[in-house]
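Listing S7. Sequence submitted for prediction.
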Amino acid sequence: MSDAIYHGFEVRQKDRGIDLKAVKAAIKDLKVETPSWGYGDSGTRFGVFKKVGVPRDAFEKFEDAAMVHKLTGTCPSVAIHIPWDKVKDFSKLRNHAESLGVKIGAINPNVFQEDVYMLGSVCNSDAKIRKQATDHLIECVDIMRACKSDALSLWFADGTNYPGQANIRQRKHWMEEALTTTYKALDKNMRMLIEYKFFEPAFYHTDIADWGMAYNLALKLGPQAEVLVDTGHHAPGTNVEHIVAYLLDEEKLGGFHFNSRKYADDDLIVGAMNPYELFLIFHEILSALRTNSQPNVQRTASRIAYMIDQSHCIEPKIPAMIRSVLNVQTQYAKALLVNWSELAEAQTQQDVLRSEAAVRDAFEQDVTSLLQIVREEIGAAADPMKAYQASGYGEQILGRGKGGASW
């Protein structure tokens, strides 16, 4: 990127009243967690597509994740899924991660894959199965301690396919019972992130179907429980940024699973389908960070765990992850370019079009040169995608062969 192009960008932002020094500092502070499962083989309910070069174990997943962090400069942690990433000695995995310049992030229990969970895990009518699921949640708290993780990320597939299949209110109580038991096992520095999803794999009802149910559970549990918003877990047309604003104001927004969707929980590359939604989500978060009259809301906004959760079914794993990270960086950078004084004045005057324009104008800015400069300043690649293609890493990992770690 030529100096002349960036200089032109600087001039335009100065004319718009934007403090680029503050913008660059905020971009450098952005941290996005990548998921271990995003580097492994994955597919759809019709099959898993095996690719050459995917990681064969959790250790190799961290090697791939470290390459993403090296090139983008913004992905220092990696979420793991248990038992997919279970190892005999988690201290060895932690040390391996740290030797690569990354660390273990959120711990994600799996209470949906085993045959016994066909009709539910913590909401199953069989007390033995409920106990098995709850014991696994507690096991994952122990794994958090071994990995020095502070986030337990919970998603439950529990639900039913037909009216009358189960007592919905009873299942609600079983869910509360399991979460309460798990919450009590947390250390003071740990937090529980409760994810919701309106359908799939259950088609009639899901036990935690929307943000309101997740919020209600978090509220009952206590301050260490918060809501996790997966951008693909909503009905079409849902105003996700409104949910974000509400949870921020209630001091219960804990984190995100970023991905993209067209129809359902498609788990596509972040920002591939509706980049404006991602921009508006960041806009609400940045608005909360500016709310000096609500320090607890500011604190909530400052502690959000930004995580990617996607399934690269047909794409090469590492380039797809890099693309997602770059898309997050892009929309975050654009959201930082809102002229807040202009927006506040327009809102005070109830000028609808001027208010909308103040937000849209930031979205329409080209931040390519800005991001390239920032990456260079933090020692990352100016163009991570090109740098990856030139690195030879993609060819190097082909020696792993086909049939690596998958779901």
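Caption to Listing S7: primary sequence and predicted structure tokens for the chain studied. The longest helix spans residues 127-147. The chain is about 45% helix and 10% strand.
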